[in-house]
Fold each of these.
Amino acid sequence: MKTTSGITDLSQRRPDPLDFCTLAIQQSRQPVSRCYHCQRCAGGCPVAEAAGITPERFLRLLHLGLLDEALESSLLWLCVGCGACGIRCPNDISTDRVIDEVRALSIERKQIASAVKDQRLFHRLFLRQIRLFGRVHELSLAMALKLLSKNWFSDLLLGQKMFFKRKLPLLPHRVKDRRAIRELFDKGSDR
Amino acid sequence: MGQYGYYPGCSISSSAREYDRSTRAVCATLGIHLTELPDWNCCGASSAHSLSKDIDLALSARNIGIAHRLGLDMVVPCAACYNRTMHAWQTLRDDPEKRAVLQAQLGFDFRADLQVYHLLQVMEQHLAHLKEAAAHRLPEDGVRGRRVACYYGCLITRPRGINPHEDMEYPEGMGRMLAELGYQPLRWSFATECCGAALSLVRGDVVRERVDRIIAAAREAGAEAVVTACPLCQLNLESRQSDRFPVFYFTELLGVALGLPETEKWWRLHLINPVKGLPQRA
C-alpha cells in the first residue's frame, strides 16, 4: 500500500528495516545523502564519547538499513539535541533531527531496543507530567524516575539540598485549562 | 520602557527561583513591565521533540497564542524554552499548512510582528538605560568588576537560524553587556559547549564529565566565575561539578551593577554560594 507521498505504508505489512530507515530520514527532512563522513559532527558531539558511536556513523547505519544496530546504539537515547552536529556540518545535516525521528518511529512501531532505556523513560515520564499538569513537577518526576529505573539512592543528597532551599515544591503548579493540554496531546498523535 | 509577555518556564518556580527573582527585580528597576502569560504550559523541553514533533509544536504554539491574545512580544529566560518557542514561532511563520491547523485548534491569529526574545536580547536592547541606571548606584564591592566566563550553552544559538541576534559559534551579547557594566568578560572556547542537559538525572556521569571540562576551561581562561542564562545549564554547572566554582545568572550580575539591595537573598538560594567562592581581591 502506498501513501500519497509515495512512501510505502509500513503498518500494512511486516516492517522492513531499510523502509524504516528511509522513512525516518525522509520525515526528518534532512539532506542525509549529502553526508561524506568528514566527521566534523563527531568532533562537536558532547555525547559521542559516552555513546561509543559518532553522529556520522549513526547516519551510516541508517543508510545501510542496519536498523537493529541503530536502535541498539546508545547514541539514539543519549543524544541531547544540542545541535552541535548541525551547525558544524558543511552539508547542513542536523543529525539530532534524524535521531528524533528514529526515536518516534521506534516507539510507534514498538521496536524498542534496550540501550539507555532509562533516558527513554525520562522523556516519557516528562511528557506524562505535561499531559497531567500542563507543566513539569520536578520532584515527582525525579522520584518516579529514580523508582522506576531502580536508582533509589543516586542524587538523594542533591534532592535534599534542593528541597531545603525550597527549590523542589511538594505540589505541582498546574495549568487551569488542562483539557486544552490533553487535546494537544490527542490531536498531536493523530496528525 | 517596554512591556513584554513573560514566559517563565517550569524551572523558574522551582530550581531557578533566584533567576526569576533577579529577572523581575532588574526589570522593575529599569521600568520594563513583565506580564506573566496567563495559564502558560510547559514548552516540552527536549523530551517532547524527542518523542513527537506534533506535540512539541502544539505545546509552544499554545503559549505563543496566549502572548498574541495579549498583543505582546514574548520574553523567555530559559534556553530550552526559548529554543522550542522560537522553533514553533518560525514554523507558524513559514509553514502555512501547520499555521492554519494550529490557529484553528488554539484560536488565535498569528502575527509575525509579535516577536519572541530570549531575556538576554531584551536586556541588551535596554543596555543604554541599564548603564545609566547603574552609573548612579554605589558599587557593590564583592562581585562587581569580576573576571567572568560567559556561558550560553547550546540552545540559545542553535540550530542555525534559530537566533537572529547572535553568532551560533561565538555569541558575544552577554559579554558586551557585562563589559559595559564594568565586568571583565574573557575570551574562552567553551561558551557554547553542551553541559549534558537533560541527561543529568539518568547519566549524571556524562554530565559531570562535561561540566568539569567547562569549569576547568573557565578557570584556565582566568575567570573568577561562570555566568549563565539558562536554569538547566545553571543547575548542571552547580550540581555536577567536582569543584566549588562560582556560577551566576547574568541577571544577578545586572542586579549587582544596579546596586539592588536583595542580592544577598539570591546567593543563599544557590546550591553553591557563588560569592563565597570568589577569590579575595588583591
Amino acid sequence: MFVVGELINGMYPYIGKAIKEKDKATIQKYALEQIKAGADALDVNCGPVSKEPISDIVWLIESIQEVTDKTLCIDSSKPQVIASGLKVAKNPVIINSTTADPEKLDILVPLAKEYKAKLIGLTISAKGIPQNKDQRLELAAVILAHCLDAEFPIENLYLDPIAMPINVAQAQELDILESIREFRIISDPSPKTIIGLSNVSQGLSARSLINRTFLVMAQGFGLDAAILDPLDSELMDAAITSDLILNKNIYCDKYLEAYKKR
Amino acid sequence: MSKISTITIGATKAEGGTRSYNIKIGGEEALPGLFKEGALPNKPRIAFEVWDTLPLDWPAGLSAEYGKALNDPLLWAEKCAKKFKADSICLRLQGTHPDYANKSLEEAAGLIKEMLKKISLPLIIVGSGDDEKDASLLPACAETTKGERCLIGSATQENYKTIALSTLANGHSLIAESPIDVNIAKQLNILISDTGMPLDKIAINPTIGALGYGLEYAYSIMERARLAALSGDKTLASPFVCFVGQEAWRAKEAKVEDSNQGIMWEVLTATALIQAGADLLIMRHPKAIEKVSKYIDNLYNGE
C-alpha cells in the first residue's frame, strides 16, 4: 500500500496558520511525523485560505525538502500552482490532480511528462461528480486515452474514482469499490488506483473506523495507494495487515514493525 | 532499485585487521544469473570448513583428502590455504558442543588466536550449534577476533541477544539461522536489528537440505525471500550463507564407497543453491569446491 500523508494542507487550521506566518518548523514537524508513521509520500496543499498559492506552494515544498527526500504530491486544483511547485521540486513528484476535462489534461499531462512526475486523474469533469460506475469508467477512459495519445507512461497514472461520504452517497460506495477493480483492467499496462480516503467519512462520527473499514475493503478490490492520515495508527495497522492477507508482504510475528523498517 | 546488502569478510592491515585480503558477498540487484536485469557485483564465494576437533562422522572418502591434518585444526587450515588454495576458512567449533568434546571457551579462543597467526585468509566462525553454549562461546570468539571483521554465527531466536551485541561491538557481521522458514528468518532479522545491529551486517543461514533431502524446499524459501527483498523488503535483504558440506555429506548417497558420488552430491547441492541465491557456501570436499568454483567462474564469465 502506497501511503500519501494528507496532513500538510492549508485547510487544517495549524497548517493554514503556519503558511500564513511562514512557520517552517511546524511544516517540517508534520512532514517528519507522517514519514515516521509510515507515509511513503506527502501531500502538499496550500488550502483555501492561501492568498498567494503560487508562492506559498514553493515555500511549502522548499521547507519540506530540507528535511526529507520522500515523494511530494503537489495538490491544487489550479494548474498554475502545480506548475509553480514543479519548478522547485527536487524530490520525486506526483501531480494531484487533473480531472477528465481537456483544458486541464492539455496542461497537466505535458507537465507531468516534462518533470517525469506521476499524475493523479480524478474521474470527475466540469459536468460534476459521476453518479455510478459506468460514468466513472467513461471518465477514466477519457483520461487514459489522453495519456496514451500524449505518450505518457500509463504505469505513472493513478486513477481516483472519487470516494464519497457515506451519508451523501451510500448507494454509490459499492460502485466506487468496483471501479477500483475495473480501472486496473481497462488497459495493459494498467493504471494504478488511488483514493482520497478521508472523504468517505467527511462530516460523520466514527470517522477512523469508517476510514479503515473502507480502506481494507478497497485494498481487497486492488487499491494501490491512498491519501490518508498516517498518524491514525489503527488505520495504518489495518492497511499493513490487509497487504499481508493479500500476500504482498511476507508474514512474521513482528510484521507491523517489519513494515516500518522496510 | 532494491538490493541485497553487501557484507565484507576480513579486514586487512590497512583496515585494522591482519587478513591478507577481504571478500565481499551480496549486493545483488537481480535474481541469480540474470545479469541483464541488474547488477550482480559479487560472485558467490566458497569457504573451506575446518573443525576444532576430529570429525567422527565424515565418510572415509572425504576424510582421506585431509589425512592426518584432521587431528590438528591449524595444519588442516594450512592445508586448505596452501594445497587447496582456499578463498576463506570457516572454522566450526564443533568440539565445544556439550555432547561432543565440550571444550571450554578458553580453548576455543586460544585456537582462534593461533589460527589468526597462522592463516591470513578471511575467517568465518561458527559455534557448536548448541544454543546455550553458543550464547557464551560466540561472544568470546567475537572478542578474540576484534577488528578482523569476521562473519560469526549462528544466532538463533533462542540466543541472538548476547551474540548480536558482541559481534556488533567487535566489528563483525552475524549469521542469523532459521529452520527453513521464511517467516522466522524475517522475524529473527528484525529481532536482531532491534538490538542495534544494522540489518546490513546480517547474513541469513536459511538452513538447507541436500539433494534428495529437502533441497527444493530450501530453494523455494530462499527464492521467496530473495524476491521479497528485491521488491523492497529490507528485512530480508541479507546475503545467504549455506552449509552445503554439512548437509550433502549427511546423505546416505554421499556415504557410499565411491567417494565420487559424495563429491557430486555436494556439487549438485551447491550449484542448485547458487541458482536460489546462495552468496557464501560452506563446503568440505576439495574436489567439490574446485568443481563449484569453476561453475561459478563460467556463470560469471559467460563461458
Amino acid sequence: MAIIEVRNLVKKYGHFTALDGVNLQVNQGEIYGFIGPNGAGKTTTMRVLLGILKATSGQATIFGMDAWKDAVEIHKRVAYVPGDVNLWPNLTGGEVIDLFVKLRGANNNKRRREELIERFDLDPSKKCRTYSKGNRQKVALISAFASDADLYILDEPTSGLDPLMERVFQEYVMEAKQEGKSIFLSSHILSEVERLCDKVSIIRSGKIIESGSLEELRHLTRTSVVLDTREPIDDLSKLNGVHNVEKRNNSLYFHVDSHQLNEVMQYISQFGIVKLEVAPPTLEDLFMRHYKGDGGEL
Amino acid sequence: MSKGLYINTGKLVGFILRRDRIRMPIWIISIIVFTVLIAVVIPDLYATGAERQVMAETMKNPAITVMLGPGYGLDNYTDGAMMAHFMLLFSTIATGIMGILFTTRHTREDEEDGRIEMIRSLPVGPLSPLTATFLYMTITNIVISLAVGLGLYPLGLEDMDLGGCLLYGASLGAIGVFFAALTGLFAQLTSNTRATIGYSFGFLVLAYIVRGIGDVENETLSLISPLGLILRTQVFVSNYWWPVLITLGISIIIFGISLYLNSIRDLEAGFIPTRAGKRNASRFLLSPLGLSLRLQRTTIISWTVGMFILGLSYGSILGDLEGFLDTSGIIQQMIPEVEGLSLTERFMTMLMTILSILGTIPPLMFILKLTSEEKKNRTEILLSKAVSRNQILGSYTLIAVLAVPIIQIMSILGLWFAAVFVMDDVISFNTFLKAGFVHIPAMWIMVGLAVLLIGYLPERVSLTWLYLGYAFFVVYLGDMLQLPDWLNNLSPFGHIPKVPIEEINIAKILLLVAIAILLIIAGFVGYNKRDIHG
C-alpha cells in the first residue's frame, strides 16, 4: 500500500525550478532513503509533502489524502524531524517535547517519553537556547518517536548526533519499521542509508535520477575487483566492461560492469588466480557517480 | 588573554560598514532629510513675530512640555527656538533607537547566532567586536552630527548660526552614541538578543518618562535622564555645549564598563542568570494559543504595565494643565468654547489619541511576532503537527485583537488615577473611558493591516510600523505644522470622533470595525494560500 505518492511534482520559485517533475512512492512498512547533494530538492520535497509549500503542479498525497488540502488530517499520523531544528529559546526541551506530542493530537505516553529521554541522554529541564545542534535534534527526535505516528518524515535527522546516538536512532527506526510504520528519510550519511533503507531515490537538480532497491541500484553500477594471477594479464583493459585498470604492488585493481562480471571471471580464470577480492559497489560509489553527473568515472 | 585584545578592530569596522552599507545610509539620510525639511517649513508656518508669540504661549502648556520638553527662549520665540523645541527631543529619540538597533545587531545578536564565535576563531582580539561596533556607531553619529549641522546652517534661519547648528547635530549624535554604549552594556549583562533590546528600549522609555515628569515637576529629575539632559543645551537660544560633553563622557564610562565585563565573561554567557526550567510543560502551554501566549508572556505583561505608567505620567500633568489653561488668556481665545466642557476635557482628546497610537505598538508586536517565528522555521515545525494555519494565525490575531481593549483600559486607568490626585475638577471616569474606547476600531484596523500583510506580503510587514509612525506624526505635529486635513484622513485615527467634543457616530465606528474585520479575513485567506518560508 502506498503511503506517500508523488507524481510529476513541480515547484517553482519565480524562474527558478526547485523541483522538476519528481516521482516517488513510499509503501507501508518501508524505510525509504532520499539522497542527493545539497540544494538538490530534498527538503523542498519534504516541505511540499507536509503542506508547508504549495506545489506549482503535480500531485503529492499521503495516506491517499492531498498533502496541501488535508494537511492537518494527515499530520495527525505523521512525525516530522526538520533538518535544521529551531526551537524557542525560552522554553525547555521537556516543554517542547510535550507541546509537539500534544499538538500532533497524540496522548502523552509518559513512560515512552522518559525512556526516550534517557536513551537519547537529554536534559529536558534546560532552556532550548543552551542546546547544541545535536541536542535540538534530540528534542525533535524524541517528540517524533514519542508519538504514535504511521509515517516518519526525517530530514537529515542524524547530522548533529554522535555515533552512539546515531545507533540509538537507528534502533528506533528499525523498531518503527517492525511495527509496520513507514519512514521517509533523507541523509548524507550513506552507511546509515545503506544499513536502514529498503529503497533509495537519488535526486539531483530537482529531478529523481535513480531509484529502486539497493540491490537494483547496484546492478546499475560496477563491482570493484582486486586480483593477483600467476601469469600476467596484459590486455585486461581491452575486455568489454572492464574499467580503470591500475597496477599496484603486483595486484590489479579494476572495476567491472555488473552485468559483464560472468564473462570477465571466465576470462581471468585462465591466468591462474592467486588472490581475488570482489566488493559490491557501495552506495558511496553510486552516489559519487551520480553526483558528479557524468556517469563514466567511478 | 592580555595580549592583542583589540587586534583587527579596524578590519572589523570595515566589515560592519560593508554589512550595513544600505541599512545605515537609509537611517542617516532619513534623519537628515527629515530635520532639514522641517527646518525649511518652519519659517513659513508662523511668519510674523506675533504669530510666533501666540505659539510660544501654547508652548507653556505643561502637556506640551511633557511631550516635547521645556520651552525656552519663549520671550523671543525665534525660528531657531521653535525648531529646537519641536524637533530636538524626537530627533534624539530617533538616533537613540538607531543606536539600540544597530548595536544589538553587531553585538549580542551576532553572538547569539554564532557569528562572533566564527570571527573570534580568526586572529581577532576578544574585545575587538565590541570595540569595532562602538567605533562604528561613533563614526556614524559624527557623520549625522556634521551632516545635520551643515545641512541646517545654509538655510540661514533666524538665530540658527553655525555654532548652534553644529550643536543641534552634536546633540543628536551624543544621544546616538550614548544609547550605543548603553546597549553595548546590556549586551554584556543579558545573554540573548531579546533581553538586550528589551532592556535598552525599556531604558529609553524610562528616560522619556522621567524627563517628562521632571520637566514639569522637578528640574533635577530631568537631568538624570539623558533625554532631559540633552534638552538643556537650549540650542539656538543659549547654545550650551556642556550637556553634550557630559553625555559623551558618560557614554565613554559605560563603554569602558562594558569592555571590562566583556573581558571577564565567556562567549555567549551573560551576567543576568537564567534559571533552570521545567521538565514538563504545563497544560496551559499545550495549544497554539497557549504557546504564543507563553512566548510573549513577558512582552505582554511589561507593555500592559508600561501603558499604565505612561497613562499615569500623562495624567500627572492634567492638574498643571488645568491651572495653565485657566490663566492663559491667549489659549482660551484659541480653543473655541464648547458648552458644558472644560478646556482640559477638550485637550484630553488629543492626549487620548496619542496614548492610543502608542498603545497600538504592543498589539502590533504581538501579531508580528508570527513573522519572526516563520523566519526562524518554527512555524514550519508547528504546521508539521496536526495544527492548521488558521489555528496559528488565529492565536496571534486573537491575542492582538484582545490586547487592544486591555491596553486601552490600562492607559485610561493610569490617566484617571493620576487625574484624581492632581485635578481640582476631576473629569469623570466615564468620559475617559469613552474617549479611549472610541479609538479601538482604528487600533484594530492597524492590527488588520498587519494580518493582511502577513497573509500576502510577509516580507513587507514593516510597512505597518511606517503607517503607525505616520499616524503618530500627523497627530503629534499636525496642528503645529498646520498640515492639511486630508493628511490626517489618511490615518485611521483621523476618522475617530474627538470625544467628548464630538458626538460618537455609531455608523462610522461600525464602518471602521467592518474594515478591520475585512482586512483580517483577507489576511487569513492569503495565509492559507501561500508558502511558509523558512
Amino acid sequence: MSSEWPLWEIFIRGQHGLNHRHVGSLHAPDAEMAIRNARDVYTRRNEGVSIWVVPSNSITASSPSEKGPLFEPSNSKVYRHPTFFDIPEEVGHM
Amino acid sequence: MYAQLVKSEGAKPREEMTAEEIAFQDRIDRGEKIEPKEWMPDGYRKTLIRQIGQHAHSEIVGQLPEGNWITRAPTLERKAILLAKVQDEAGHGLYLYSAAETLGVSRDELLEKLHSGNMKYSSIFNYPTLNWADIGAVGWLVDGAAIMNQVPLQRTSYGPYSRAMIRICKEESFHQRQGYDIMMKMASGTPEQKAMAQDALNRFWYPALMMFGPSDKDSVHSVQSMAWKIKINTNDELRQKFVDQTVPQAKYLGLSIPDENLAWNEEKGGWDFSEPDWSEFFAVIAGNGPCNEERLGARVKAWEDGAWFRDGLMAHAEKAESRRRASRMAAE
C-alpha cells in the first residue's frame, strides 16, 4: 500500500498589490509539484499571479475553544475605533 | 446533485439535546459557518463526510462518460473544450475531497470506500454516452441539474464545503452552456443530427430527474440534514425548479420532453410532469445500472495503474529532501 502524498495549503495572490490568500489545499509529493498542481487546480481561469504552498502540518492555528479569551483584549477596547470619539460637526471632516 | 441518498445521523428533538448541541444548533440557525476545528456533533461530522465524499466521488466518476468522447469529438475546438470541462470536474472532485479532509478523514480512505463499493456516487453516471449528442445532453441536463442543487449549497453551514461550492458554481455554468451549445448545433443540423439530439434527450431526461434523489415523502434523511443546513431545499423543490427551467430550453431547441403528462399548471405556476421510475433509480444505486461495473472498474484500474507513479514521485521527493539535508549539513 502506497503512502498518501502530504497535504499542502495553497495561497494565491489574485492581483498585483493584493495579499496572498488561502484558497484551499491539495496533495503533492513535494513543494515543486504542489505549485504545479496548484496552478492546475486553483488558477485555471486567471485567478492568480503568484502561488505560495505551505505544508499543512507546518501551520499552527489558534484554538477555536479559546476564541473568547484570546480576542477579549481587542473586544474590550472600543476606544480603538474612531467612532468612539464624538467630534463636533463644526470641526469638519476628520 | 450529486449526493442523492445520504444517510443522516443523530436526529433528535431539542429537549433531548445536550447544552453543547443546543448551542451548536443555535449557531447554525443564526447563519454562522461552522469551521473545521470547532466542536460539532458526531452525527453532523459523519453525515457531512458521507455527503461531501459522495459529491466528490460523483465529480471524478463523472469524468468517465465524458472522457469517453474526448478522442472522438467532432472538431479540434470541441475536443479542447471538452478536455477543459473534464479537467474542471477533476478540480471539483479535489475541492470537495479537501473539504472532506478537514473533517478528519483522509482522501485515500474515501477513495478506498469508493473503490470497494462502500460509498456511492450519483446514479446518473451509470448511464452510457452513446453518441456525440449525449455529451450535449450531459452538459445541458446533468450539469444543469447539478447547478440547481449546488447554488443553494453555497449557503451550507460547513465553511469548507460552502467555499468549495462557491468555487464550483463559478465554473459550472461554462459546463452547462457548452452542453447546450452542442445541443443547438445538433438540433439545427441535418434531420439525422436532430434525431440524435432527440434520442439523447429521451435517454437522459428521467435519469436527470433522478439526480435530485427520491421524492420527499420517501426521503427519510432530509429533515435532520435541513436542520443542519447541509441540505437547503427538498428533492422535490429542486426537481420542480429544474423542470420549469428546462422545458422552455427544450422548446427552443425544437425537441420534445419525453413525457406525455407534461402540462403547464397555472395554479402552481410550474409544470406538471411524470415521476421517474424509482425502482430503476434504486436498482442503479444498488449497483445494477447499465454501467456501474464499467465505471467502478475504470476507477479501480486508474488507481492501481497509477500506484507506481504516485510511489515514484514520493520516492523522488524523499531522495531530493535527503540530498538537500546532506548538503546543508556539509555546509554547516
